[in-house]
Amino acid sequence: MITTLIYDGTFEGLLTAVFEIYEHRLDLVRIKKGEWLNTALFENTIKVVTENTRADRVLKGLKQKLSAMGLQRLYAAHLAEMDGEDDNLLGYIRYVFDSSQNVEEDYGNKYVMRVSEIVRSVRRERHRMEAFIRFKELKDNTYYATIEPDFNVLPLLVKHFRDRYADQKWIIYDIRRSYGVYYDIHDTQYISLDFATLDPGNAIAAFNENEVLYQDLWKNYFNSVNIPARKNTKLHLRHVPKRYWRHLTEKI
Amino acid sequence: MNAERITEKLNILADAAKYDVSCSSSGSKRKNKDKGLGNASNGICHTYTEDGRCVSLLKILLTNVCIYDCAYCVSRKSNDIKRAAFTVQEVVDLTISFYRRNYIEGLFLSSGIFKDADYTMERLVQVAKKLRTEHNFNGYIHLKSIPGASDELMREAGLYADRLSINLEMPTAEGLKLLAPDKDRQDMIKPMGFLKNEIILRSEEKKLFKKAPIFAPAGQSTQVIIGATPETDQQILSMADQFYRGFKLRRVYYSGYVPVIKDNRLPALNSDVPMVRENRLYQADWLMRNYQFNVNEIVNANNPLLDLDIDPKLGWALRNLNVFPIDINKADLQVILRVPGIGVQSAEKIVSARRFGKLNWDQLKKIGIAINRARYFITCHSSKFERRDLTATAIKQYILAESSSKYLKNSSVQLGLF
């Protein structure tokens, strides 16, 4: 009979679930993220309570079997938050623990291959965010950007933007997941903003006086560099998918 | 800043610079230092124009005023257009403001020739110097060197810029003579030689003294216009090969001629931009730089022109069927890299994966190789072998029939630039 484990969606939660699977020697299992409901219709359901000591033990085990890069890739695959992929991540983790050698490059294996595919998608979106994030300067000289990525890539972006914009305050806010990162020239911290109390009509008033000028200059520049004789809409759309347009200054 | 005036200048001077195709912002290794602004190494395309080309740098001319009268150039002296010039400070402000908003990776600054080479070059260098020294800007800077500028200015440029380039304009000296009679190819080649030596010297110095300044860390590149003069692909690629070897250039860019001026030395105003040919040249160039192909394997006296309907790697494979089929589970990486439909990443994955067991078609497909092309050239852990005893012509027909969308003849679809 299949046992379903429900966890909180965090990486630590996933690792805690793995700990329980090994502790209880569960064989036929499914992992799902979600709210634990007392009225859960599943039989044989275990609620996984995230516990750092347990997660750490699994993490330590993984570190012995994977390179630092391999572990990073597993974490990135988890950030994809794809429906139904937790079972593949579990399959991958089990394959790693069951093998005597490091198997992270065994692309003939279906779990390794699947993780590799997911990581490719996550990296593509991370790269797109590095490219498509558009900051707007606020009155207090903080640079503010909103994003809505398909995958939860914000944690993978922090280092890039810290290294690049070391001398300016910035906020990158994921409006789909309602959290952001704030850098104050010294440290970064995760934040959440209460948009309910903010007046959207005030958004423009919050901009620095030159902000609109630079947005216009950028839009003008974007139009000036186009060569109409070479128009190629299909290629353009492949590079800049429409779902990103509402956050791209040059496409608004 | 006067918004109206700066907008007009930007429109004019971006419009005039857009035919310069260099877009790369990678290959440098400049780190953000002392909590300054920016870093350079990643090569990020921040957006794409509606014609599908990447926008990575703020690419502008300092001025479109020019003392020369080159037939192919919109900024030519005799062309009746609006002229403008940025001040040094205006370029600096635009660069910083765009960079802070994450619009760009840095600046690509070129220029028409104001008065003479040194006068113009000096201003380009001033922009880069100001960005580096006054604003602690560590983003990417690509300066277009002015042919004929003094060695002193070239040396200073290298201290502030990540990349320097001098456009060869035409693939051959004869082509240049025809369309730019005032220009001398030697004026372009001489500074390339100077920079090459300087780059080698400075990187030796850097190895000995950690504190030695970095000098043009992303090296040199150049650009040639193709399709304006009658050179063959063999002439063009041999020229590129010669510059890669002789001057250690990082890139040669190929710019399909866009007819902008009526001149009886040039293709007519309504002629098509040779986009497919341009794409094939980039693919061939890629094979030379990343796949260790020799230029003669790609084009030679028997095949002076690249096939327009198939990519140059497939073209080479069809001319060399005796090399194939290769066993994917045994062949060296270098050999796998030569299989049509297998790229660098897939080839590396194959070599990693086969340590764990032999690979079959399903696994190869999952790894990401283009089976529709590769299957005629490889065997794997499977009894099927698709090539049977097909001739090169038959294989080509099969592949074309299967992938008509990509290789469709006369298609207006331009393939992605690398």
Q: Can you walk through the features of this model?
A:
- The complex is a heterodimer of chains A (252) and B (418).
- Chain A has 252 residues and is an alpha/beta fold.
- Chain A is 42% helix and 13% strand.
- A five-stranded mixed β-sheet of chain A has the order 4-5-6-7-8, with helices on one face. In chain A, strands 2-1-3 form a three-stranded parallel β-sheet.
- Chain A starts with a strand and ends in a 13-residue tail after the last helix.
- The relative contact order of chain A is 0.08.
- Chain B folds into two domains: 3-298, TIM Barrel (Alpha-Beta Barrel); 320-414, no CATH class.
- Chain B has helices at residues 3-15, 88-100, 117-135, 151-160, 173-179, 185-208, 233-247, 275-290, 295-298, 312-319, 333-336, 344-353, 361-367, 371-374, 392-402, 404-407, and strands at 26-30, 40-42, 47-48, 54-55, 57-61, 106-110, 140-144, 163-165, 220-226, 251-256, 326-327, 378-379.
- A six-stranded parallel β-sheet of chain B has the order 5-6-7-8-9-10. A two-stranded antiparallel sheet of chain B has the order 1-2.
- Mean pLDDT of chain B is 92; it is low at 406-418.
- Chains A and B meet through helix 5, strand 4, helix 6, helix 7 and helix 8 of A and helix 1, strand 3, strand 4, helix 2 and helix 12 of B.
- Chain B: Its cofactor is [4Fe-4S] cluster.
The tally of helices of chain B reads: 16
Low-confidence stretches of chain A: none
Instruction: Output mean pLDDT of chain A.
Output: 91
Helix content percent band of chain A: 40-55%
The share of residues in extended strands of chain B comes to 5-15%
Count of β-strands of chain A: 8
Structural class of chain A: alpha/beta
Radius of gyration of chain A: 22 Å
* Overall 3D shape of chain B: globular
Structural class from helices and strands of chain B? Answer: alpha/beta
> Approximately what portion of the residues of chain A adopt beta-strand conformation?
5-15%
N-to-C order of helices and strands of chain A:
EHEEHHHHEEHEEEHH
CATH class bucket of the largest domain in chain B:
Alpha Beta
Biggest β-sheet of chain B: count, sense, barrel? Answer: 6 strands, parallel
